[in-house]
Design a protein that fits this description.
Blueprint: H1 3-6, H2 15-39, H3 42-47, E1 53-61, E2 65-75, E3 83-87, E4 90-93, E5 100-102, E6 115-121, E7 130-136, E8 143-150
Antiparallel strand pairs: 1-2, 2-6, 3-4, 3-7, 5-6, 7-8
Length: 153
């Protein structure tokens, strides 16, 4: 049997153009996927994840006031302008409504050990209200509760 007749040199001429076309199509598909992901904003969401941080709550009560001190116990540093504290759904930090801020509040950025103290007259809080530390995405569109605790009854 003559193998030279079965496999001739002319039969290998079409292989190179076919491989070239397949590679060009693959590169085009990959580029289209990458460009599409950034155009649709999927690339921006990766860098705007909520920070990982823990907060401690210290509730104190005396004859005239009830106080809560919220302390950054550890984790990521957080931009102060992205944080708000709500008590029973009402924003109380950085702007206060029914509470009074004691001291200067969180530093910027908020780092481990920073704290804010909020105070209210005893008659205005019965206990059971939820205190939340909320991070709002600086780019807009999302917010995450970083910590929450119920006011002791």
């Amino acid at each position: 049997m003559n193998f030279k007749k079965l496999v001739s040199e002319d039969s290998e001429r079409g292989v190179s153009p076919v491989i070239g076309v397949i590679l060009m199509v693959a590169i085009t598909v990959i580029l289209a996927a990458v460009i599409g992901a950034f155009v649709l904003g999927l690339g921006d969401q990766v860098s705007n994840n909520a920070p990982q941080a823990s907060f401690g709550f210290d509730f104190e009560e005396d004859a005239t006031n009830r106080n809560v001190t919220i302390t950054h116990d550890g984790g990521d540093d957080i931009d102060q302008s992205a944080i708000k504290v709500t008590i029973d759904g009402q924003e109380e930090y950085p702007t206060t409504n029914t509470f009074t801020q004691v001291g200067s509040g969180f530093s910027d950025p908020i780092t481990t050990g920073d704290s804010v103290e909020l105070s209210i007259g005893e008659s205005n809080i019965d206990g059971g209200e939820t205190v939340r530390v909320i991070w709002e995405n600086p780019s807009g569109g999302s917010s995450n509760t970083l910590a929450e605790r119920d006011w002791p009854t």
